[in-house]
């Protein structure tokens, strides 16, 4: 999800975000977008998509599996030719980044 004040997503970037909603964290059973792990998505004029994201923990054992699933989801969007994943640790992920849907699904209230 793009930071407030950031450039709004293009239609293609919105399609990428929709595709990423199909990538489910196998440990939590919720998609990466609703978990708040996707920080930004940008697609350039050459069709190169850069997904800026984080993981819930450093050294996540599922990172290779998630990389494959993210790449497949991104490349499923017609205008995208290449997927680059920019894995960041700042800002650190916490439950406040989760959508209301994700918090309710996991039984987190507040």
UniProtKB/TrEMBL annotation:
InterPro entries in the record: Fe-S_Maturation_MIP18 (IPR052339), FSCA_dom_sf (IPR034904), MIP18-like (IPR002744)
Family annotation (Pfam families): FeS_assembly_P (PF01883)
Domain MIP18 family-like residue range list: 14-85
Official protein name in the record: Metal-sulfur cluster assembly factor
SUPFAM superfamilies attached to this UniProt entry: Fe-S cluster assembly (FSCA) domain-like
Domain of life: Bacteria
């Amino acid at each position: 999800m793009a930071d407030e004040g950031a450039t709004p997503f293009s239609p293609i970037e919105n399609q990428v975000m929709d595709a990423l909603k199909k990538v489910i964290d196998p440990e939590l059973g919720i998609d990466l977008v609703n978990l708040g792990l996707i920080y930004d998505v940008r697609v350039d004029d050459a069709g190169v998509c850069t997904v800026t994201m984080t993981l819930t923990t450093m050294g996540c054992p599922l990172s290779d599996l998630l990389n494959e699933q993210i790449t497949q989801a991104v490349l499923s969007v017609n205008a995208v030719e290449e997927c680059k994943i920019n894995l960041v640790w700042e800002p650190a992920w916490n439950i406040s980044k989760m959508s209301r849907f994700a918090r309710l699904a996991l039984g987190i209230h507040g």
